[in-house]
Design a protein that fits this description.
The chain is 9% helix and 53% strand. The protein has one helix at residues 2-31; strands at 60-69, 79-91, 94-107, 110-125, 128-143, 150-162, 166-173, 179-184, 204-209, 213-220, 222-223, 229-239, 244-254, 258-265, 269-278, 281-290, 301-311. The strands form two sheets. A 14-stranded antiparallel beta barrel has the order 1-2-3-4-5-6-7-10-12-13-14-15-16-17. Strands 8-9 form a two-stranded antiparallel ribbon. Strand 15 and strand 16 form a beta hairpin.
Length: 328
């Protein structure tokens, strides 16, 4: 009797996993999958991930790496990793911004990786500078149970304005709505606790379409009088024309060394952040406290961003002039 109960329990768990997987695949087929890059809580530290025109906006040679574990404590929770590098460039007296970016995203049975290049033209405007840029990305994806991987190319464009007191930008990502196609041919699988096999053997054609996304970003730098603190408010909004997502953040920075703050991602989480920057080195940590009915089932999300920045000076260097003085 006990052995029969254990076998029945094992069969139920196995069937539940199969149902979840098939439901996910069914969602992909019927909705062409509204796939977009994941939301990073410290978006203000890796702006080129969301706007190619942010390349070179810091005035430094900037390197950033980020890792995010979302909804920890849940099975097959999303995991995202990003690498970015960007810098300003002066050629023939004209300003440019260039950058590279890489991104890895996994969620359930889907794995995706992409790498891209960014280039923009910068010119002075109203006490600040405006950059217009383009981006090209090559992506590779695989689906659990699929016989092959697929590739896709996507393009993006953006405008980014920087001023000593604030910054703002708008971008369009995946403007060509790239599509990846997979052929899934499930093989007969046997549950180790059951003598029965799965009869799911028919071939499935799965298309994953990445929707066009519009992204708005803005932030400011407000010194607090008679203190060594400054207020750093920022906001990001993303829409694929079916769903609007956003995050509002407020941080305090002390002596340009240590910053801490709180943010709110709409209908998802309250975000707590802590960061430090010393001699060009940066490290930041954020924790997402879940507030939605789905994310409350998890233990929250963890994110780390680290990097290094190098000051650049493109001003023409004056040649040293020496005068020879003879005392007669």
């Amino acid at each position: 009797m006990i052995g029969e109960r254990k076998m029945a329990s094992g069969q139920n768990k196995y069937r539940l996993k199969v149902i979840i997987l098939l439901s996910f695949l069914g969602m992909i087929r019927s909705h062409s999958m509204a796939q977009t890059d994941a939301f990073m809580s410290q978006y203000y530290e890796i702006p080129t991930l969301y706007n190619p025109a942010a390349a070179g906006s810091s005035g430094d040679l900037r390197f950033r790496g980020a890792g995010r574990l979302q909804w920890t404590g849940t099975e097959n929770n999303p995991r995202n990793f990003a690498l970015t590098a960007d810098m300003p460039l002066t050629l023939a007296g004209r300003g440019f911004g260039i950058g590279v970016r890489g991104f890895s995203q996994s969620e359930g049975p889907l794995r995706m990786m992409s790498a891209g290049m960014q280039a923009g033209y910068r010119f002075r405007l109203g006490g600040g500078s405006l950059t217009a840029a383009l981006e090209g990305r090559y992506g590779n994806g695989c689906l659990k149970g699929s016989e092959r991987k697929d590739n896709a190319f996507s393009i993006g464009a953006g405008l980014f304005y920087t001023h000593p007191s604030f910054w703002a930008g708008i971008s369009g990502l995946d403007l060509n709505s790239p599509v990846m196609s997979f052929v899934r041919r499930p093989e007969e699988t046997v549950d180790p606790e059951s003598t029965e096999g799965s009869d799911v053997t028919e071939t499935e054609n799965v298309e994953i379409k990445t929707k066009r996304t519009v992204c708005l970003m803005a932030g400011g730098n407000i010194p607090l009088s008679a203190t060594l603190f400054e207020l750093l408010p920022s906001v990001i909004m993303k829409s694929d024309f079916d769903r609007l997502r956003g995050e509002l953040t407020g941080r305090l920075r002390y002596k340009k060394l240590i910053s801490f703050g709180v943010g709110y991602r709409f209908d998802d989480a309250v975000v707590l952040t802590l960061a430090a920057e010393i001699k060009g080195f940066f490290i930041g940590y954020s924790y997402d406290c879940p507030v939605s009915s789905w994310s409350k089932k998890s233990d929250g999300s963890h994110e780390i961003v680290a990097g290094y920045s190098v000051k650049l000076d493109f001003r023409p260097k004056e040649k040293n002039k020496y005068k020879s003085i003879r005392i007669m």
